User: Fold this.
Amino acid sequence: MPKEESFAVNRIKSVGFALRGALLLIKTEASIKIQVFLAIAVTIAGFYYEISTTEWIFQIFAVSLVVGIEGANTAIEKICDFIHPDFDERIGFIKDVAAGAVMLVSIGAIIVGCIIYLPKIF
Ligand SMILES: Nc1ncnc2c1ncn2[C@@H]1O[C@H](COP(=O)(O)OP(=O)(O)OP(=O)(O)O)[C@@H](O)[C@H]1O
Assistant:
């Protein structure tokens, strides 16, 4: 029987797997690369325009939501390609819905960005 590991060791291992997943995502997915670039750009803009604590909270929340949902979308795409590599309308539907979720949170993030920065720029 395998030796039982402590709760703490298991948690640390899980964090390691999650970090590896985040790195894989950034390394392999073009859309995540763009989102990470935009996240860095708005972070610089946040410091430049000295946005308030509340604005930082909304900005960080919006950026994390987009990147997080994009990660889930990538995982769904990979599962689809693994379980059913051939063309199937149902796979198309699943992938479209997952992509739609990314689009919805992205629209929200763009609106948050406009509310924060438009009054500061113009
Ligand atoms: N096996 C399939 N069966 C039916 N339609 C599919 C299939 N694979 C992809 N599609 C259609 O093509 C679209 C794009 O799918 P794809 O897996 O290429 O994702 P993508 O948007 O190019 O993802 P990314 O660029 O993030 O890797 C899907 O939203 C879906 O409409």
